[in-house]
Design goal:
The protein is mainly α. The protein contains twelve helices and two strands, in the order αααααααααααββα. The protein has a two-stranded antiparallel sheet.
């Protein structure tokens, strides 16, 4: 297989890993106002992702670094053209990480409320803006002959991209709530299951609208097939959640999110940044990639390093596999 094609799909898989893993982190953060009735509830929710959120977040670093090394032209165009939304994502991720570490440092409710708000902000903003960014990549943006973005920030806020943002927001929210039902026990788990049912109906409608729009406007046969399977997985996850099959519901949600991401990449291929103003200005896997030597070195590095990363992450999830509940939280008395 041509190394440029191989690395296009490797990067796609890395973004699948990031959206699936950090996606439920975002969902847990966004669930605080809905499931966190008191401080103990909120501590339970945060503790479901406490051991793994930073490990999940490293996937975006690996994906970004791989994108920079394998497709430097793509990286340069995307990060310069989408500078403001990507900075907002970075700020939100920093705010979220700081909040996880500092929320418990003082006992005052006002202190915790402030950091809870930062966790919600730091979860919702990336969940929305990642969808906006990827939808714009699939739709295409204005590029000049040197592949520089010539549009404005507000050009990125078009109806299709905003629908993409709402889609990822809802996908991650439901994904996180299903994860909570899987990782908690007692009343919190029951309420999470009910919330996933209510939010799941809206999620299916919005995601189906986005996928249908994508297929008819920008899709290929491959992307249409992937989108169809993704839609089926979303519906199956919803039904599994109704039956209380939490592991199955979570696995199907993870699969659906992964298939949605792969469908978007399949819509792009073989382009990586379409030019909506002039197809001749588009970036493709051919004119955006690094040299064959660089891609070869990266391939050997990935072959050695990725299994180690996956084994370590799998071991981490195995160690922290047990459910938690209010009884596991030490309630401080002040």
């Amino acid at each position: 297989m041509d190394l440029t094609i191989l690395w296009f799909w490797i990067i796609a898989v890395m973004f699948v890993g990031y959206f699936v893993l950090d996606g439920f982190d975002f969902g847990v953060g966004m669930s605080l106002p809905f499931l966190g009735r008191d401080d103990t509830d909120r501590r339970v929710l945060i503790n479901t992702i406490g051991p793994v959120w930073d490990l999940n977040e490293t996937w975006v670093i690996v994906a970004g670094a791989s994108l920079f090394a394998a497709f430097p032209e793509w990286y340069a165009t995307m990060f310069s053209g989408f500078y403001l939304p990507l900075v907002l994502i970075l700020v939100a991720l920093i705010v979220r990480g700081v909040s996880f570490e500092y929320r418990h440092q003082r006992p005052e409710s006002s202190w915790k409320k402030w950091f809870d708000g930062m966790i919600i902000f730091g979860s919702a903003v990336p969940a929305l803006l990642w969808g906006v960014a990827f939808a714009n990549i699939v739709r295409g943006v204005n590029l000049d002959v040197n592949h520089n973005y010539t549009g404005t920030f507000f050009d990125l806020l078009n109806p299709y991209a905003l629908l993409g943002g709402v889609t990822t927001l809802l996908l991650f929210f439901v994904h996180g709530v299903v994860f909570i039902s899987l990782k908690t026990e007692g009343d919190i788990s029951l309420r999470a299951r009910k919330l996933a049912t209510k939010a799941g109906i809206l999620m299916i409608v919005v995601a189906a609208t986005f996928l249908v729009w994508t297929i008819f406007a920008y899709g290929t046969v491959a992307s249409a097939l992937l989108a169809a399977v993704a839609a089926g997985a979303l519906i199956a996850s919803f039904l599994a959640n109704l039956r209380g099959a939490e592991r199955l519901a979570f696995g199907l949600m993870a699969g659906a999110i992964g298939l949605v991401v792969l469908s978007l990449f399949a819509s792009l291929f073989p382009e990586v940044m379409p030019a909506s103003n002039d197809p001749a200005n588009s970036l493709t896997i051919a004119n955006a990639s690094s040299s064959a030597y660089t891609l070869g070195v990266m391939s050997w590095t990935a072959l050695i390093g990725m299994p180690v990363i996956l084994l370590y992450q799998g071991w981490t999830y195995w160690v922290f596999r047990k459910r938690i509940g209010r009884a596991h939280i030490e309630v401080s008395v002040h």
